[in-house]
Amino acid sequence: MPPLFEHELLNQPFGDPVLYVRLTGERKALLFDLGELGSLSAGKLFKVTHVFVSHTHMDHFIGFDHLLRLNLSRDKTITIYGPEGIIKNVRGRLRGYTWNLVEDYPFVIEVIEVCAKKLRKVCFICRDRFMSDVEKTTPFEKAIDVHPHYTVSALRVDHKITSIIYTLEERFRININRDRLQRLGLPVGKWLRELKSCIWEGKPDSWLVCVKEDKAGGKIFKEIELGVLKKEITTITKGEKIAYISDCRGIERNFRKIIPFVSGADILFCESAFIDSDKDKASSKGHLTARQAGFIARESGARELKVFHFSPRYEHCPDLLYQEAEQEFRRSRLSGNR
């Protein structure tokens, strides 16, 4: 079975932060941060349904207008998550334009603020000239977007303002054993997608799955219990976990929160703005050094580290940041070594 997440880190390594994640088998994609989006095709941006913004400094939010313009006349809802203040920020962007010709446009922007203990949600409706509806609140602990296939979780960190880091975690992975399928005389076909859907949805083992087999004489239908099919032809394994960190200060209280939050990530995307000899500059700007990124990756047990969001001061020597992050990541795990 192919991976659920196909990811693409844009504008590397000195440009605006954007992580594009496409969901395999679905006409859907997620964005982490909203920096410059010009390198993404319209076809890829049309698939975006959810956006997870770390904070609204310009280099993390300037792509909002591009995404808005492209989707304006489409019949869809885009949900945008971000820190406290993002509702006001989106409202301000929308009020900067004139909306007298959109009464037939069904497009909706749903904006959700990640507060300390609650989520605040407001919808901006295009046909109503993006006037917002009544604010709604729900409790919040960790998970913010729960999908049958995956969960997105959020953690508030210190960037001299509140910034949000995110994890994207596949619930589990379903693999079909083609050899067992053949031995049982069962065909490959669309019914396997329906089988997977039943497992994702948590149907009981007694649930009857319709197996459809095309033959020269017509269609033959079999009904087999879900529990039997799960046992005989599927293998369920741990899903992939992706973590996204941008931006935060390299301070102890951030490390204490971040390391358990991103623990066990298969891929950790982490900002690495400065080299460690410039850590005073990093601290004054509220960013991580490459060494600190490597430390987080190592201590959290990440399988792979991808660093990004370098300061322009290293345009002539980006390898210094890659090397420093990788060296720290590959060191033996020694607590307190930052």
Molecular structure report:
By secondary structure, this protein is α/β, with parallel strands linked by helices. It has two domains: 5-171 and 239-324, Metallo-beta-lactamase, Chain A (4-Layer Sandwich); 174-237, no CATH class. Helix content is 27%, strand content 32%. The protein contains eleven helices and 19 strands. The chain has helices at 42-46, 58-61, 64-71, 86-95, 178-183, 191-200, 226-233, 252-261, 279-285, 290-299, 319-330, and strands spanning 5-9, 19-23, 29-32, 48-52, 77-83, 108-114, 118-125, 131-132, 136-139, 143-146, 150-158, 162-170, 173-176, 208-215, 218-225, 234-237, 241-245, 267-271, 304-308. Strands 1, 2, 3, 4, 5, 6, 7, 8 and 9 form a nine-stranded mixed beta sheet that branches. It has a six-stranded mixed beta sheet with strand order 10-11-12-17-18-19, covered by helices on one side. Strands 13-16 form a two-stranded antiparallel ribbon. β3 (29-32), α1 and β4 (48-52) form a beta-alpha-beta unit. The relative contact order is 0.11. The model has no long low-confidence stretch (mean pLDDT 92).
